[in-house]
Amino acid sequence: MILISAPKSDTNAVKWLRSQGVTFDVLEYAFAKVGATHAAAAVGRSLEAVCKTLIVKSDGKTFYVAIVPGDQRFDGRKMAVAVGGRRADLAETAEAEKITGYQVGGISPFAMRRRLPVFIEESLLVLDRIVVNGGRRGVLVELATQELCRLLAAEPADICG
Question: Cβ-count burial of 63 within 10 angstroms (0-12 exposed, 13-18 middle, 19+ buried)?
Answer without folding.
Answer: middle
